[in-house]
Design brief:
alpha/beta, 3 domains, 515 residues, Rossmann fold, single chain, binds xanthosine-5'-monophosphate
């Protein structure tokens, strides 16, 4: 799929911020794509690249085996912006000089602007910037001038206005840099002259045509989970091919209260999507009986899911495509550079796709999009605010939120408690302000007193976190009276619970889920 004829290429040198750069560009309504740092210049031209950003990265340009871009990118006549490692690469390859700093510059710094030009147009004369670099440019390449500096680095922003090559020593993409977005936007809109027409309203039509062309008269099956990605994929594909799409929803018996009914109401009743519901709770619970090991639980749930899904698809005729709600961050290949933290983080989050043995062709209409774009697309397609802003819910569902053995009785308790938590957060207007909020069932009993009677009952833990990508998270510090209300409602209304605890751990070192 080629969504637009204007692309800003971000050459990835392994920075943990590469994706953030790409997202910031998309926020300027310009399409960006992340490329391996050594992508041939010819390929960039063929793709329609109109501007190139060299990302930061953990390496040093002074090392012999340092990653370098194809030198031909400097001969294309296309604007180039180097960020952090990128400015050093640019200076080094264009025969300036880069030296190791006496002191690694990390954290906040003050940037003083000497000359604004196109890149710094509209930026205040001094701004706070976010640094993270060891080496620095000490001698400019021919044709360049310094247009801004920090206390430690004379060449903090460099420019060759004729060739339209620019370098920033700091990170404009992170929130700690004041007016960083404006600097990026100046590069993209003023220097690369992008139109800024990458909007989901434009994207829908293009995506629909692409789906129709690819699918033809075939039928497409999609595993609908009720989460944002598969829901938006379903709505989009349905808009393109109507009844040729069949959605399969697997009720694994580990869903939250009313989840299946909600999915039926939205997709079957409202959107009139051809929806098959596989009610297989009993099958899952039978396999899970007596199992307490978290990894074993996950494996069983995953394996059963694949089998149930497979069986449902086998029962359908003429299906050639399997649709998935794969997003852009899932398909970006991490750069194999030593010390690249982004590569490690990603492998942990790689959730296994459906089996290759299904021999279906893949249809992944969201694979160009970041999460926020998927949400905007969902709104465009008529999905509700509640639907596109739902909290993430893990594939193994409540199975990983019941510590120890999963039983129908424990599921019932957890479901009832969870409903109360979500209801109160929504009522107090906190649900959409936190990343995730859920209850966890603990496999212990504690003593309590209710009326005149001594109780010996279950404990529920509240897990409410703030995060922007689930890779790191902080426990959300909500008002105490709200927590108190949730706690007393759970204890009063959920039979079998006499104690509520609050999880006050951050990730890392804890994780968001308990298993
Ligand atoms: P952790 O617990 O690793 O979770 O901090 C990070 C994010 O991933 C979700 N999660 C899962 N999602 N299948 C999924 O689809 C899983 O097995 C799974 N485990 C965790 C979790 O809810 C959080 O958003």
């Amino acid at each position: 799929m080629k969504p637009t004829n204007q692309i800003i290429a971000v050459l990835d040198f392994g920075s943990q911020y590469t994706q953030v750069i790409a997202r910031r560009i998309r926020e300027c309504q310009v399409y960006s794509r992340i490329y391996a740092f050594d992508t041939p210049a010819q390929k960039l031209i063929e793709d329609g690249v109109v501007g190139i950003i060299l990302s930061g990265g953990p390496s040093s340009v002074l090392k012999k085996d340092a990653p370098r871009p194809d030198a031909k990118i400097f001969t294309l006549g296309i604007p180039i912006l180097g960020i952090c490692y990128g400015i050093q690469t640019l200076a080094h390859m264009l025969e300036g000089k880069v030296d190791p700093s006496a002191q690694r510059e990390y954290g906040r710094g003050k940037l003083t602007i000497r000359k604004k030009g196109l890149l710094l147009a509209g930026i205040a004369n001094t701004i706070q910037v976010w640094n993270s670099h060891g080496d620095k440019v000490t001698q400019l390449p021919k044709g360049f001038e310094t247009i801004a500096s920090t206390e430690n680095s004379d060449c903090a922003v460099i420019a060759d206005e004729v060739r339209q090559f620019y370098g920033l020593q700091f990170h404009p993409e992170v929130a700690h840099t004041e007016q960083g977005r404006e600097i990026l936007s100046n590069f993209i809109l003023k220097i690369c002259k992008c139109r800024g027409d990458w909007l989901m309203s434009n994207y829908v039509e293009q995506a629909i045509q692409d789906i129709q062309k690819k699918v033809g008269k075939s039928r497409v099956v999609l595993g609908l989970s009720g989460g944002v990605d598969s829901s938006v994929a379903a709505a989009l594909i349905h808009r393109a091919i109507g009844k040729q799409l069949i959605c399969v929803f697997v009720d694994n018996g580990l869903l939250r209260k009313n989840e299946r009914e909600e999915v039926e109401r939205i997709f079957s009743d409202h959107f009139k999507i051809n929806l098959k519901v596989a009610r297989s709770g009993k099958r899952f619970l039978k396999k899970l009986k007596g199992v307490t090991d978290p990894e074993k639980k996950r494996k069983i749930i995953g394996k059963e899911f694949v089998e149930v899904f497979d069986d449902s698809v086998k029962a359908l005729e003429g299906v050639d495509f399997l649709a998935q709600g794969t997003l852009y961050p899932d398909v970006i290949e991490s750069v194999p550079i030593a010390g690249n933290p982004a590569a490690l983080i990603k492998s942990h989050h790689n959730v296994g796709g459906l089996p290759k043995r299904m021999k279906l062709k893949l249809l992944e209409p969201l694979r160009e999009l970041f999460k926020d774009e998927v949400r905007a697309l969902g709104k465009e397609l008529g999905l509700s605010h509640e639907m596109v802003w739902r909290h993430p819910f893990p594939g193994p569902g409540l199975g990983v939120r019941i510590i120890g053995e999963i039983t129908p009785a424990r599921l019932k308790v957890l479901r009832e408690a969870d409903v109360i938590l979500l209801e109160e957060l929504k009522r107090a207007d906190y649900y959409y302000k936190v990343w995730q909020a859920f209850c966890v069932f603990l496999p212990i009993r504690t003593v309590g007193v209710m009326g005149d009677e001594r109780t010996y009952d279950n404990v529920i833990a509240l897990r409410i976190v703030e995060s922007s990508d689930a890779m790191t998270a902080d426990w959300a510090q909500l008002p105490h009276d709200l927590i108190q209300l949730i706690s007393s409602r759970i204890i009063n209304e959920v039979k079998g619970v006499n104690r509520v605890c609050m999880d006050v751990s951050s990730k890392p070192p804890s994780t968001i889920e308990w298993e």
